[in-house]
Amino acid sequence: MLIHFPADFGKNGSRKERQVEWKALEAWAKSGKAKAIGISHYCRRQLDDILQVASVPVAVNQVQYHVGMGTAGRLATDDKSYMKQKGVLYQSFSPLCGPCDPPDNKELLTGSLVTTIGKHYNKTGPQVALRWLVQQGIPVIPKSHVAAHQKENSEIFDFELNEQDMALLTAATRPAVGGGPSASDSGDCGIEELVV
Ligand SMILES: NC(=O)c1ccc[n+]([C@@H]2O[C@H](COP(=O)([O-])OP(=O)(O)OC[C@H]3O[C@@H](n4cnc5c(N)ncnc54)[C@H](OP(=O)(O)O)[C@@H]3O)[C@@H](O)[C@H]2O)c1
């Protein structure tokens, strides 16, 4: 069970609200209703607020992260490595950019970068996009209503992208959609705040 979004009421606020939220989720988990609890869309500062009071491990932080965002600043670097350092699994939602606006929503399905790379491995664009994530140790939760797509998405553990292809995918800037660890780029997660 995850908290879908961090409480965020502005640049200087919301630490207490986030802590209250987390303690409520902990109490619920301790009553036996969840095996593991986690968060979604949290940046590192918001995670820190929770870690100050947590007595149950933060199992996962689910964030939008996919090919195209590999160089997207804090999302791609600081937050990802910080979660790892703190033992919080960094998980990619919308790994195929499904909810992105057209034409971005097709980029990781039929776009030229992923399909061209895929040809070297006899794999499809979605398989390449998903493999780029899992090869970094990032679990993915692609969604599909089509049985053949579900099967295709699961067949990503029998090949390995070479270093050059990994680098090309990391350098990609399309689709450049960032759901964030947080939409709280209102300031609550601003870089200047991270040194506080
Ligand atoms: N924490 C959050 O705030 C948050 C936000 C958004 C999503 N999520 C989670 O992330 C999961 C997946 O994200 P998502 O559904 O937003 O996006 P996604 O998995 O990136 O993309 C889904 C889209 O990709 C298509 N697709 C999937 N596999 C394909 C394949 N092999 N070939 C061609 N098309 C393929 C699907 O169409 P077909 O059905 O036609 O295959 C669907 O249109 C969801 O289950 C949701 O729980 C979490």
TrEMBL record:
Name the keywords, alphabetized.
NADP, Oxidoreductase
Q: Which Pfam families match?
A: Aldo_ket_red
The record, for InterPro entries, names: AKR (IPR020471), NAD(P)_OxRdtase_dom_sf (IPR036812), NADP_OxRdtase_dom (IPR023210)
Q: Give yes or no: UniProt keyword NADP.
A: yes
CDD domains, alphabetized: AKR_AKR1-5-like (cd19071)
Regions crossing the membrane: none
NADP-dependent oxidoreductase domain boundaries: 22-172
| Name of the protein this chain belongs to | Aldo-keto reductase family 1 member A1-B (Alcoho l dehydrogenase [NADP(+)] B) (Aldehyde reductase-B)
Q: Which organism is it from?
A: Cladocopium goreaui
